[in-house]
Amino acid sequence: LAVLLNMTKSAISHQLRELRDAHLVKSRRDGKVIYYSLDDKHIEDIFEIGLEHIRHIDDKSK
What we know:
Arc Repressor Mutant, subunit A
């Protein structure tokens, strides 16, 4: 994730903590690995609406 977003691991960790504190994502630990997912169905719906909006804007600009 850090490489993909061109950010340090520390910055990614900080952002994920902020998202978790805002109840936008939840985390699950499996040994040394922490898995993150959207917190609930409501957040998933909001995320999907945001993606739909971005796709709509991209389609209009072509």
